[in-house]
């Protein structure tokens, strides 16, 4: 690692109306260094990297590359200076192939100026191979799962031969094996002298790969530390302004009766889709229950079928022939679409909030009220006063940080966008809540808030089915963990009596001694 900074940011400040996003931030990246950027959602991380990557051009302060001040006119100018960014929300085109996405805007040409598809496929295979990603470059991007799309985004950034690579939550949707490949790639980039700005809420990752970590809080630098040499509690305290003990003092879900009244009963549910979509694992004979007041986790490796099961239960799954039975509150339940699911008292928080749940230009308040407009209307006319009161109540209850209810939901931080989706679902007062990676890309403090919320909802009798890739989350929040493998149930485990190793073994098809494995 060089002592000379490739990029230096000095006194960078930015306001959005009356909201201070950055207040005189100093930050630098050296050649061959991994510099982590930490902080709660809304702390200013995304704003800072948007300045560095040329997305935000009207700011105070200076940015220098190799000691020379620069002011990028846009992202293309930043890329030309050797700064590439992998954003938390993927910047890909679902209707194009993997290869076309990788070279978009930089397509290789033949002598006749047509796109050289052979060269394009060759380049794509080389870059995907560099990451160890076993993907067909001819596949449509939209047919890939979120984790696979993340690998494509990383490969695309590496094609720029960047001197500084910004990674915003790059492992949020990756399986453990893919994370190891990514870390090996980062190690190779460091040897080549590439500086990496690494944003993640996973402390174990920061401690493993980062040389330095700068912590932002409320738009300012709270401190810069060396992760491997600094107590984790100290770092968390810098992030949130309070002790780690108080942050994770999440009240456990109250003990309910061992034989909770069944709320959701799924028996041998299978889906045979009309059109087989690559990468999807439809339910194959799934049997499980969720009791009233119970939090049940869904675990499994990537492609195990967690998302497909939740989508099917919400009426948003693949069209096709279904077999088996589902009962909700003792009554047959087979929603034809999400609207029918909502009417039955089933809410859903999807994995990809931007693609599946939000219209970023819509006002925050309208985004919250969207699913409950029927209950906020009289004779088909929305009662604005009733809507405003409902929105204010949910924003206060979930501590949603926004300039106002009229602010575009796209202007909110990732964690607050996630809270907006929760608020929308809770406004319809569901009895069953389906959650797909509900804390993906959410900071530690917001995670604790979500866990408290889930326990409170369960205490009020709501049933919760929660899919997560984070094993500590499943074991710490859920009463039981149902492990899926290739669309089928591999095990049904009691969280208090199980370990992360038990879940992984079941997910990989290894029998777990003394456990309910299938």
TrEMBL record:
Keywords: ATP-binding, Cell membrane, Membrane, Nucleotide-binding, Repeat, Sugar transport, Translocase, Transport
Every ABC transporter domain range: 7-243, 264-511
One Pfam match: ABC_tran
Xref: Gene3D superfamilies: P-loop containing nucleotide triphosphate hydrolases
Domain of life: Bacteria
One Gene Ontology MF term: ATP binding
SUPFAM superfamilies documented for this protein: P-loop containing nucleoside triphosphate hydrolases
Protein name as catalogued: D-ribose transporter ATP-binding protein
Organism of provenance: Asanoa siamensis
């Amino acid at each position: 690692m060089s002592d000379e900074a490739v990029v230096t940011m000095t006194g960078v400040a930015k306001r959005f109306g009356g909201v201070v996003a950055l207040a005189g931030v100093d930050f630098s990246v050296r050649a061959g260094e991994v510099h982590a950027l930490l902080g709660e959602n809304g702390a200013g991380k995304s704003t800072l990297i948007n300045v560095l990557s040329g997305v935000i051009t009207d700011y105070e302060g200076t940015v220098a590359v190799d000691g020379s001040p620069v002011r990028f006119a846009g992202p293309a100018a930043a890329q030309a200076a050797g700064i590439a960014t992998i954003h938390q929300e993927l910047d890909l085109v679902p209707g194009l192939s993997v290869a076309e996405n990788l070279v978009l805007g930089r397509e290789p040409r033949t002598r006749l100026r047509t796109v050289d598809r052979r060269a394009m496929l060759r380049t794509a295979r080389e870059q995907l191979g560099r990451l160890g990603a076993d993907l067909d470059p001819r596949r449509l991007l939209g047919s890939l799962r979120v984790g696979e799309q993340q690998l494509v985004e990383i490969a695309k950034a590496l094609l720029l031969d960047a001197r500084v690579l910004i990674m915003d939550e790059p492992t949020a949707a990756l399986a453990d094996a893919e994370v190891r490949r990514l870390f090996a790639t980062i190690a190779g980039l460091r040897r080549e002298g590439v500086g990496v700005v690494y944003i993640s809420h996973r402390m174990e990752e920061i401690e493993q790969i980062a040389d330095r970590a700068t912590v932002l809080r409320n738009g300012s630098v709270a401190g810069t530390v060396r992760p491997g040499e600094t107590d984790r509690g100290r770092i968390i305290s810098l992030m949130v302004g309070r002790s780690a003990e108080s942050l994770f003092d999440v009240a456990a879900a109250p003990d309910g009766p061992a034989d909770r009244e069944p709320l959701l009963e799924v028996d041998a549910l299978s889906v045979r889709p009309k059109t087989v979509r690559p990468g999807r694992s439809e339910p194959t004979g799934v049997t499980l229950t969720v009791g009233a007041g119970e939090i049940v986790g869904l675990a499994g490796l990537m492609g195990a079928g967690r998302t497909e099961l939740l989508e099917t239960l919400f009426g948003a799954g693949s069209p096709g022939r279904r077999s088996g039975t589902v009962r909700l509150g003792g009554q047959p339940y087979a929603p034809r679409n999400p609207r029918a699911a909502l009417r039955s008292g089933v809410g859903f928080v999807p994995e990809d909030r931007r693609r599946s749940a939000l219209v970023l230009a819509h006002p925050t308040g309208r985004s919250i009220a969207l699913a409950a407009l029927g209950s906020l209307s009289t004779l088909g006319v929305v009662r604005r006063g009733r809507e405003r009161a409902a929105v204010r109540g949910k924003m206060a209850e979930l501590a949603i940080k926004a300039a106002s209810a009229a602010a575009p939901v796209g202007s909110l931080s990732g964690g607050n966008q996630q809270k907006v989706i929760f608020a929308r679902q809770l406004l319809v007062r569901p009895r069953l809540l389906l959650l797909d990676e509900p804390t993906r890309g959410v900071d530690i403090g917001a995670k604790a808030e979500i866990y408290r919320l889930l326990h409170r909802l369960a205490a009020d009798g709501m049933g919760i089915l929660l899919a997560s890739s984070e094993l500590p989350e499943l074991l710490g929040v859920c009463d039981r963990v149902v492990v899926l493998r290739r669309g089928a149930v591999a095990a049904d485990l009691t969280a208090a009596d199980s370990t992360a190793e038990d879940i992984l073994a079941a997910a990989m098809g290894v029998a777990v001694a003394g456990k309910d494995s299938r």
